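Quick one - inputs below.
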Amino acid sequence: MSQNKRSEKSEPQSKQNLRLWLRLLKASRIIETQLREKLRQEFASTMPRFDVLAALYRFEKGLKMSELSNVLMVSNGNVTGIVDRLVKDGLVLRVPVAGDRRALLVRLTAKGREDFAVQANAHESWVDDMLSEFASKGGAEFSDQLDELTKSLEERI
Amino acid sequence: MSQNKRSEKSEPQSKQNLRLWLRLLKASRIIETQLREKLRQEFASTMPRFDVLAALYRFEKGLKMSELSNVLMVSNGNVTGIVDRLVKDGLVLRVPVAGDRRALLVRLTAKGREDFAVQANAHESWVDDMLSEFASKGGAEFSDQLDELTKSLEERI
DNA sequence: GAGATAATATTTAGGCTTGAAATATTTATG
DNA sequence: CATAAATATTTCAAGCCTAAATATTATCTC
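Output:
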């Protein structure tokens, strides 16, 4: 029971916030759906795979499984399966960590690095195609507001 | 025109658009994750279930399976499973459509309607709690921009 | 009407996701 | 040293999600 009793008739603020969230979700889903379809069609891949490769591309020395799941903000068990499949496809390696036999470092293979570079270029241009029209009219400000929103959300945790 | 707002190197537009998308995705994920956790903890339910109930609550006469999947922007086969479970839990009914033996109308039961009303109130206040701080500083404009973004995205399809 | 095409819903196969429990290893404590 | 606590990862069960295949019913065209 929150201290805000929004059930009063003349209190549209919570409705406005709800609408804001629904709009955010809708825009996000449209973009995500299109990107997922592109990844599937062009590279026979998926968003989660792309996200893992992106993280490993950025951290060249590799990431431990737990670090990977932190960076991606997904559960531990989730990453295991995705990495399993990437290993099977030769894009990623599990390397033992010296001095800690519990941990494994996940790293891109040469092929993984090459493949991702191509995919990342395509991905960037897909996003650009989707957003360029909107962004030409105040996209920078909007982007900054999104950043503020995220910060405001993270403060609450 | 704030095209060269960044550094002297003038980052390409596509990078800015990519950042916009990543910020949108991040904000969306934070909210979604928190809502999902709340639904699970408070009502032993999930987002997809909530979404289905919300759609059926809005369309009192019920929706065909295909209409439901259109409204929710998810695949046909997906809805089948969710509705199966909602039927099993007594929140939803499948009703034959007179004159078309292919189609089924999905409708809330009395219990479904009652349960959802409670959940929707809670959901609205969760969202309000998350967004009220941010929304107090220009949230209305931001919301309108989100709406424009969605329209711009939908024009491209 | 007959046959083709479209609409509707389900099933299937494969992958994604979570939280909880299980396993293995390391570190801290008595 | 022994044992408990903490850390790292995997496994598991359940549900979510998609695209493709299937089955049934409706509609269209000739």
